[in-house]
Amino acid sequence: MGVPNAALNLDDTDQRMLEALARNARISLKELAEAAGLSSPSAAERLRRLEERGIISAFTVDIAPEAIGYPLQAIVRIRPLPGQLHVVERIIQETPEFIECDKVTGDDCFIGRLVVRSMGELDGILDKITERAETNTSMIKATPVKRRLPPLSH
């Protein structure tokens, strides 16, 4: 994680670079420089500094789960039974169908996102967890807001 005040030092050029990278992490350095109004060497240096400051932590790809055989997605709220927190966390980490999971405050300890091929597959995954936790599952119908950058301006 970066320094909490690192975002306070983002200027308009940094913001343009981050927005261009959020649209396409595979953008060429030349195109990134053009988007930011910089030369390629200047853009490369800024990119390096954004990484060093922890503002950029990875360059990634966005894969459509349904295109690779996972037509169903679910959000699962998980409340481990007493003494089972670490075991449940390990089960979640070792289950590749959990594509995302947050440890949260409140009644539930974890909120996870699963991709599955069928309802039967979902039941099988949940069966491993429900021996050690209470779960509440909601099937995802649509994602009106995909993961995106937070507001970059001050």
UniProtKB/TrEMBL annotation:
UniProt-recorded name of the protein: Lrp/AsnC family transcriptional regulator, leucine-responsive regulatory protein
GO molecular function terms noted in the UniProt entry: sequence-specific DNA binding
UniProt keyword terms in alphabetical order: DNA-binding, Transcription, Transcription regulation
Cellular component GO terms held in the UniProt record: cytosol
Domain spans labelled HTH asnC-type: 10-71
PANTHER family, alphabetized: ASNC-FAMILY TRANSCRIPTIONAL REGULATORY PROTEIN, LEUCINE-RESPONSIVE REGULATORY PROTEIN
Superkingdom of source: Bacteria
One GO term of the biological process aspect: response to amino acid
